[in-house]
Amino acid sequence: MNEEQTFHVKHSKQPAQPALAHLADELDALARAGLRRTRKEPPADGSVSFCSNDYLGLASRPVPGRAPAGSGASRLVDGERAEHRQLERAMAAWLEVDDALLFTSGYAANVGVVSALASADDLIVSDALNHASLIDGARLSRASVDVVAHCDVDAVERALAERGRAHRRRWVVTESYFSMDADGPDLRALRNACNRYDAGLVVDEAHALGVLGPGGRGLAIEAGVRPDVTVGTFGKSFGAGGAFVAGASTLIDWLWNRARSFVFSTGLSPAVAAAALANLIEVQANPDLQARALANTARLREGFAAAGFPALGFGPILPVVLGDPVRAVAMATALTAAGIPVQAIRPPSVAPGTSRLRFTASAAQSPADVERAIAAVAALGRLPREA
Questions:
Q1: Catalytic: which of 236, 237, 261, 265?
Q2: 105, 141, 179, 355: which one is catalytic?
Q3: Phi, psi at residue 221, to the nearest 5°?
Q4: How confident is the model at residue 49 (pLDDT cuts 50, 70, 90)?
Q5: Phi, psi of 127 (to 5 degrees)
Q6: Are 191 and 176 in contact, with CB atoms under 8 Å apart?
Q7: Active-site residue 40, yes or no?
Q8: Residue 293 gets which letter from DSSP?
Q9: Which one of the listed residues 84, 131, 167, 207 is annotated catalytic?
Q10: Which pLDDT score, from 0 to 100, does residue 249 have?
Q11: pTM of the model
């Protein structure tokens, strides 16, 4: 029985305090339902990850130069460094917007931007599958939130028409490429709806930038759409860490003053910013990275379908829905043992009954790696379904 299937919680060396005594029983209950998460060992030598968000294979590049490790303070206090502005200006130029602002993580960026823009008098129309960071940002804003069916533009328009006029401002919040279903909304139709009802469009491009769209510049640019707010991260295709919000200079000035997750956080590590800038330059200079990632995507989708495990959606995220969380964990364990690390995704990350294996394609995977992954997935069909 592997660690994910172990139903007994290890005893702590420190006696549980009364306020925490119930947690052991609740962890046991999670384990019995196949939903308990545990720490993972680093991948074994010779394994090739098929669950990382490192779509272009840049995360293993060494950090360039001699940028300092830390900023020392919030950028509003004493944490402003040259590396920050260099990266912000480069990203803004690439996306053809006025400016950008760095955050320490994608979570911090989404929480910060949504809660800084919306207020109690506003309406947020939010896709049902939006990331937790967007949901939490909406909650912190105290705005009225209308959660609409996933990628349903008609539902967005109805919400704006029926409820929007009763609010001071309206915001439509979505992702361009959803990381659990590998799909995305009609961004052109969303932009048109926002224009009709005087609503702002906030688009999280975290999983699209670098690998999808012309030159990897994302799905909004592919659709010919300019969001009012674009959010992206450097921890995925750009192989570093941190995140950014991009848009008009007025937006960036407002966030500098009012985004609490920016104002009250130590500035992003200059060394990380330097690494992200170097990788952004590499993405622009080497379109073969995007081409390799997409070629691997196409072959994996074809091979998985032929093996009887078709993946949802499009692009480099390949979700294979299995249903039962215990089965998903067993199959992920078998694949990892075969040198193909992959993650079992279970509730609450996805809806009950839709537990899945979430594969990702990367430019770092060789054709031989891809064929090995397809063969390993085909072998899953021989596992007992009650495993």
A1: 236
A2: 179
A3: -65, -35
A4: confident
A5: -60, 140
A6: no
A7: no
A8: H
A9: 207
A10: 96
A11: 0.90
